[in-house]
Design a protein that fits this description.
Blueprint lengths: L4 E3 L3 H7 L11 E4 L4 E7 L5 E8 L17 E3 L10 H6 L1 E6 L1 E8 L2 E9 L5 E12 L2 E12 L10 E3 L7 H5 L5 H7 L8 E6 L16
Parallel strand pairs: 4-10, 5-10
Antiparallel strand pairs: 1-2, 1-7, 3-4, 6-9, 7-8, 8-12, 9-10, 10-11
């Protein structure tokens, strides 16, 4: 799964990377956890990109309440096209989740060791995501989920899953709801991790209330 990441880029870097006109409210964070609002990129009808803030933890439009959100922070690439909670969003409401990097934990006899995974050149990455619109009475929530896949050779020594990263050249195809399912399935097998690196970090990041540079050390 992917349950923690960070986004510390300057607003101008995000705007340039995703060809945006502007950003909504944005604050850099070293420790982003499920249940928070996270910056996400969607494609509009005029083919332009828009940045929005979505609740991390998808709420299917048919759900009777929003409690299901905490169980749907990730969608598995292998089943995302068929699972009732995700299949509609996968067809029509895909998004990108900008990140500077993410964290994963390796289970050891003496406890868990946290790792930071990011690009070797420190450039922004974009997770494959889905978004959904949920309305119940007077409450409206726009939510999202990150898609994960089987870990590759880099990640598998520490965890069995990893988030799908979409290559910059494929942003448009991923976001376009007209893209054929065969193509979106191919994008879920992105080789982006060839440019990634990982390093062990302290247990400071384990607490989601810790949100500073020490999470990276």
């Amino acid at each position: 799964m992917c349950g923690r990441f960070y986004l510390t880029a300057h607003p101008d870097q995000i705007i340039e990377s995703f060809q945006l006109q502007k950003l909504p409210h944005y604050e850099a964070s070293y420790n982003i956890a499920p249940g928070q609002k996270i910056l996400s990129i969607v494609k509009l009808e005029d083919d332009s990109y828009k940045a929005v803030n979505l609740h991390w933890g998808l709420i299917p439009h048919w759900s009777k309440d929003n409690k299901i959100s905490s169980h749907l922070i990730n969608a598995r690439a292998e089943t995302v096209a068929e699972k009732p909670a995700f299949r509609s969003a996968y067809r029509q409401r895909r998004c990108l989740i900008p990140a500077s990097g993410f964290y994963e934990w390796q289970a050891l006899e003496q406890g868990k060791q946290a790792y930071c995974i990011r690009r070797k050149d420190s450039a922004l990455i974009a997770f494959a995501g889905l978004w959904e619109y949920w309305e119940q009475g007077t409450e409206t929530v726009y939510s999202c989920s990150l898609i994960t896949t089987v870990a590759n050779a880099l990640i598998s020594p520490i965890h069995e899953r990893m988030p799908v990263i979409i290559d910059k050249a494929d942003y448009s195809d991923w976001l376009d709801k007209q893209t054929a399912p065969a193509i979106t399935q191919q994008l879920l097998a992105s080789p982006a991790y060839q440019k990634m690196d990982l390093k062990p970090v302290s247990d400071w990041v384990n607490n989601p209330r810790h949100n500073d540079k020490n999470c990276l050390n």
